[in-house]
Amino acid sequence: MGFVHGCAQEVVELSSSVVDVLAGNGLPCRRDERLPKEERLKKRKEILEVFTKGKAISGNHIVIHYLMGKPDRKAGFAVSKKVKRKVDRNRIKRRLREIYRREKWRLKNVHLMIVGTEGVLHEDFRTLYHELVDLLNKIAADEGDSTAAY
């Protein structure tokens, strides 16, 4: 199916389920769905604070360290030192980052460090997705309990 456009930034139906915006040159462009830099935990001081002052929760292949009561929501990603190959470490972080990006709406005012183990490589995406969502729901419930105490 071809697409119809008149001017730049016109919403166009490319297929029955995908809607994109046309760029000025008439070519379809995708929305930027990356995790914004301001939502990433980057500074060493912030990361150490999460590990030392925060709580931890773990699943089969994922450990999440989190610190409540922050003014914003940020996440950092790390991989266990047991994973030797850089390619594998990067793949684990990409998989975890994508799941978090889709499900971050569950949390507010928390800093997270999501640590993946070697098992993340060998597990299928759907299983990882459900594991991380379950952990995020537990953190959200803990967040709800801590805000109710104030």
Describe the fold and architecture.
- With 150 residues, this protein is of the alpha+beta class.
- The chain folds into 2 domains: 31 residues, no CATH class; 112 residues, Ribosomal Protein S5, domain 2, CATH 3.30.230.
- Helix content is 37%, strand content 22%.
- The chain has a 4-stranded mixed beta sheet, sandwiched between helices. A 3-stranded antiparallel beta sheet has the order 1-2-3, with no helix packed on it.
- A hairpin with a 3-residue loop joins strand 4 and strand 5.
- Helix 2 crosses helix 4.
- The radius of gyration is 19 Å and the shape is globular.
Overall geometric form: globular
Low-pLDDT runs: 1-19
Overall CATH class of the largest domain: Alpha Beta
Secondary-structure element order, as H and E?
EEEHEEEHEHH
pLDDT average, as an integer?
80
Number of helices: 4
Strand-residue proportion: 15-25%
Number of domains: 2
**Structural Rg:** 19 Å
Q: From the structure provided, what is the oligomeric state, counting identical versus distinct chains? A: single chain
Helix content class: 25-40%
**Straight-line distance between termini:** 56 Å
What is the CATH fold-level name of the largest domain?
Ribosomal Protein S5, domain 2
Number of strands: 7
CATH architecture of the largest domain: 2-Layer Sandwich
Outline the biggest β-sheet.
Answer: 4 strands, mixed
- Which structural class is indicated by helix and strand composition? alpha+beta
In which order are the strands of the major sheet placed? Answer: 4-5-7-6
